[in-house]
From TrEMBL:
It comes from Pseudomonas imrae. This is DUF418 domain-containing protein.
Length: 392
């Protein structure tokens, strides 16, 4: 493999590792706050600082990092196509097996650890991308833009309809009380809550996240076909011009959504703002990704890239590890700290978990070529046992 190809793969892995930080920063709220994604604000957040932190999380993290992860899924799809071609193997059976295995892992993850999981959505949407594998990059980009515009317009219309019916702000949601009771109780209560909520939550997640994730799959596929990440320094001259309009527009849409999520959740206002936020979220995702690529190609950022790459290389294992750690901290599987940790303290907890994963990933990959779940997924994909330990 050439040096340029190695650079590309390391940067793709490092971007994926960076995306894991954003996903952890969002998912910790689903474990720590029973009112997260509810129709009402947490009554325990009495201070302005609590609401400000909630606003900043919605502004900078929510609906941004799963889009980056989705983009990288689409990009990696093209790398898998190339790998199958080099091996002179049929790509479609490989990919179908991979997606079925991912679906099974997602459903088990959702039933046991986190009912809000996204792996099953990726598994099904990956089959859609497989069916569209012969699209030209230009057509894939047009389909992605159309999907985002149409979907977000529907959300905005739905928000207006909710408002016309008099539901601008949500009513009391009793699921928060059930979640608080379950996570504060025994491991069996937590397991029952996850398995019960999974069937209710998955269809909602497919509707909320599916269209945007598929659009980013297509964007990533188009980027992979054109090898945009093979040498990102080639378009450095235009990068700042790009950021001058992606960053302000992305932040503007995100700010409207963040205000409603923090202060007026659950009604037509949040639904309308969600539509605007989803429309501009890809722009902020682009901003994050481009800034990280520029950083990776600097003298200081080369070291950061090397630190993040092991996390991204075993992203599946790390994603499930995050759910397991958060479950031990906040649910009946362990300490049961749900609704006991102040919002400000959640930020250093995210940093601590992420640094722990960074060290464990580097340690593991020093001895193994793949993460444990990546190894399993590769075995199913190839119908062969990959090497478990590094040799030589």
């Amino acid at each position: 493999m050439t040096s340029a190809a190695n650079t590309r793969l390391v940067q793709v892995d490092a971007l994926r590792g960076f995306a894991l930080l954003g996903i952890l920063s969002v998912n910790i709220w689903a474990f720590a706050d029973p009112y997260y994604a509810s129709t009402t604000s947490n009554p325990a957040y009495a201070g302005a600082l609590d609401h400000l932190i909630r606003l900043l999380i919605a502004l900078l993290f929510e609906t941004k990092f799963y889009l980056l992860f989705s983009f990288l899924f689409g990009y990696s799809f093209t790398l898998q196509m190339a790998a199958a071609e080099r091996a002179e193997a049929a790509f479609v059976p490989r990919m179908v097996r991979r997606q079925v295995a991912l679906l099974a892992l997602g459903l088990v993850h959702g039933a046991l650890l986190y009912y809000g999981e996204i792996l099953s959505t990726y598994a099904l949407l990956g089959l859609v991308l497989l069916a569209a594998r012969n699209l030209s990059p230009a057509r894939a980009g047009r389909w992605a833009i159309g999907l985002v515009v149409v979907t977000c317009s529907m959300w905005m219309v739905l928000g207006l309809l909710q408002g016309l019916e008099g539901t601008w702000i949500g009513a009391i949601n009793h699921d928060a009380a059930q979640k608080l009771t379950a996570f504060s109780g025994s491991a069996l209560q937590t397991l029952h809550f996850h398995s019960q909520q999974l069937a209710r939550t998955l269809p909602a997640l497919w509707i909320l996240q599916g269209p945007s994730a598929l659009a980013m799959f297509l964007f990533g596929y188009a980027a992979g076909r054109q090898q945009w990440l093979a040498s990102p320094w080639a378009w450095d001259k235009r990068v700042w011009q790009l950021l001058l309009w992606t960053a302000p527009l992305g932040l503007l849409g995100a700010f409207g959504y963040a205000l409603t999520a923090a202060y007026a959740p659950g009604g037509g206002l949040e639904t309308f703002a969600f539509g605007i936020g989803q429309l501009t979220a890809p722009l902020l995702t682009i901003t994050y990704g481009v800034l990280m690529l520029v950083l990776f190609n600097s003298t200081v950022g080369t070291r950061l890239c090397a630190l993040l790459a092991p996390l991204g290389k075993m992203a599946l294992s790390n994603y499930l590890m995050q759910s397991a750690v958060l479950g031990l901290l906040f649910t009946g599987y362990g300490a049961g700290w749900i609704n006991r940790i102040e919002p400000l303290l959640l930020l250093p907890m995210v940093a601590a978990i992420f640094l722990l994963q960074m060290g464990l990933s580097a340690y593991w990959l020093h001895r193994h070529p793949y993460g444990p779940l990546e190894w399993l997924l590769r075995a199913v994909t190839l119908l062969a046992w990959p090497s478990w330990r590094r040799t030589g």
